[in-house]
Amino acid sequence: MLGEDGYCLGCHRTGAEIASWLQMGDDERLRLMETELPQREAGRG
User: Fold this and answer.
1) What backbone phi and psi angles, to 5 degrees, belong to 12?
2) φ, ψ for residue 6 (rounded to 5)?
3) Under 8 Å between Cβ of 1 and 9
4) Which of 18, 22, 24, 43 is disulfide-compatible with 28, CB 3.0–4.6 A?
């Protein structure tokens, strides 16, 4: 489920990121998991 900010309440990805996850390369997924997603989660705290 996406929150009002457009990010998934559980994984913090956008709808577009979720939809394209399988097409993303390993490097792109790793970048999201190591940098962007933790920042998004911290911003919600």
Assistant:
1) 70, 15
2) 90, 5
3) yes
4) 24
| Model confidence at 1: pLDDT above 90 | yes
Residue 45, pLDDT > 70, answer no
28 near 13, Cβ under 8 Å? no
Q: Which domain holds residue 23?
A: 1-45
Q: Which amino acid is at 12?
A: H
Residue 38 in this model has a pLDDT that exceeds 80:
yes
Q: What is the full DSSP assignment across the chain? A: -B-TTSBBTTT--BHHHHHHGGGS-HHHHHHIIIIIHHHHHHHH-
